[in-house]
Amino acid sequence: MSAWLGLDPGLSKCGLVLADEVSGRVVAAGVLSPDACLAQIQSWQNGTGLEAVVLGNGTGSKHWQQQLSALELRVQVIPEAGTTLAARARYWQLEPPRGWRRLLPEGLRLPPRDYDDVVAQLLLERHWGTTLKRAPDLTVLGLKTWPER
Prior knowledge:
The protein is an alpha/beta fold. Helices cover 34% and strands 22% of the residues.
């Protein structure tokens, strides 16, 4: 496996996606606190032979560059501009709306959970210039569900 990590950095939470470049598949995803994110990255580094990290240049990216360099990981920093809105649209492709949400126009739909993992996936896709496949039953680590509105 040629494992790469997509990382959407943040101060209170981070989105991360582990993907196989050869198969073009998302292997794992998560929305975690920064400490839990770092621990997960170290676990994947030890278990999968993580090759590199694609890091968004948003909030906290400088701190993450230092953390990842300390782990001796190769880091590619790319612009995050527009990824939040694009990830919201992609979220609904990955997890089609059900119930009353499907009646709303797409622009008014808010995902029922944090979707920073989808932002991380988009960062990897931008870097590779391809669309990654994600199994519909993929478990998102640290999944936080928002209360119904």
